[in-house]
Amino acid sequence: MVGRNRPLSPPLLKLLQTLLFLVLALCRLEAGGLANLKVEGHSIVAEVALSPAEQMNGLMNRESLELNHGMLFIFPKTKKASFWMHNTSIPLDLAFLSADGVILEIHPLVPFEETPVVSKSDQVGYALEVNRDWFSSRGLKPGLKVKGLPKS
Fold first, then answer.
1. Arithmetic mean of pLDDT, 112-123
2. Residue 44's domain is classified under what CATH number?
3. In terms of residue numbers, what domain contains 115?
4. What is the DSSP string of 19-84?
5. Is 17 part of any domain?
6. Is the pLDDT assigned to residue 151 strictly greater than 80?
């Protein structure tokens, strides 16, 4: 039995601190947090779309997207992913990423196009939408790694 004045053991205290950190991090993500990403030294501030509702809405009904900003979609399991541009007026590029952050594919997305863009790979762990030509204007191609990704 632990007495009221007895301190927690260091391993138990460390475990409780770690659990608290993880819970707070998950709460931040659930509330639509931001992820600071880097690709070959180029930075992106990405809104995190984690819940099904956030992922369904994506960047719909917006008039613009700030320079070096985007939206990051996190999938709980790797899969073949599919995106469309329903109610989305911003010209975008879509990068499908592996679970470890490697860019697998990059696709241009046409505003209001409702034909789905489907990944070739069934190992997609993340998808990243950015302004059109963000990747090509920086010479970024499949095979490079995106750093700073939150864990799925």
1. 98
2. 2.60.120.1140
3. 34-147
4. HHHHHHHHHHHHTT-EEEEEETTEEEEEEEE-SHHHHHHTTTT-S---TTEEEEEEEEEEE--EE-
5. no
6. yes
